[in-house]
Amino acid sequence: MQTQAQSIRCWSRSLRRRAARSVEAGKRLGLVLLTGTLFAGALLTACTMPPDVRANYDQGVNFAQYRTYGFWGDIGTDANGYETLTTQQLKAATRREMDARGYTYSAHDADLLVNFAAKVEQRVRVSPGGYYGYPYGYGWYGGGYGYGGWGMWGAWQPYVDQYDEGTLNIDIVDARRKQLVWEGTAVGRISDKMRDNQAQAISDTVREIFMKYPFRAGGG
User: Fold this and answer.
1) How confident is the chain (220 residues) per 10-residue block, as mean pLDDT?
2) Whole-angstrom Cα distance, residue 208 to residue 130?
3) Is the pTM of this model over 0.70?
4) Average pLDDT over the chain, rounded to whole?
5) Spatial CA neighbour of 91 closest among 109, 76, 108
6) Residue range 157-178, pLDDT digits in tens
7) Is 6 exposed, middle or buried (0-12, 13-18, 19+ CB in 10 A)?
8) What angle do the packed helices 85-100 and 198-210 form, to 10 degrees?
9) What H or E segment, with its residue span, contains residue 138?
């Protein structure tokens, strides 16, 4: 017949085995949580959201009076007195959009003049991330082996996203009055793909901005 001491030792061994299994399961759970957090961070980095595009215009102006366009004399994206590649690409994309709306390009005496401004700023975004660690629940209490409080050992792993944010402004000015009549702005994350093909990125962004331009030459 099993003695009381033997029963206690058997019960203690059973508890230790159960505790070891719980700790091992907790470690696996912690690894899954941490891996999931890192994977989510990688997805945030890889996926590029479309730019936030906004526009505004002078509602007191009759846009039907405008039929020709040109470019401002001192373009904001030029540097040191010469025309940059960025300016050339912006002009090409803008001409495509304005021509598609019935405007005629004129190097002199245009009704509208287009200007550009661009900047790049570094941004940092911190999100909560996920928890990593393992659960615990067994321990010595009152001289005997028994249950303790169930909890988690570990820490939160925040996700830090550091990226470059680009802003492009397109201004359309009444050439005669020298007053701004329409402006469009695009703000968005700059991806590696955009850096590798800047001309295409500029073309796409200009198209997005002009989708907010509702007017046509002569009001047609």
Assistant:
1) 54 55 49 38 47 95 97 93 95 98 96 95 72 48 42 60 86 97 94 86 96 91
2) 36
3) no
4) 76
5) 76
6) 676 667 688 899 999 999 999 9
7) exposed
8) 40
9) strand 112-141
Number of Cβ within 10 Å of residue 46's Cβ equals 9
Domain count, the chain: 1
Contact 124, 160 (CB under 8 A): yes
Alpha helices by DSSP H, the chain:
4-46, 85-100, 192-196, 198-210
List the domain range (segments joined by +) for residue 157.
4-219
Q: How many C-beta atoms surround the C-beta of residue 86 within 10 A?
A: 18
The CATH number of the domain where 51 resides is what? Answer: 3.30.160.670
User: Using CA atoms, how far apart are residues 141 and 145, in angstroms rounded to an integer?
Assistant: 6
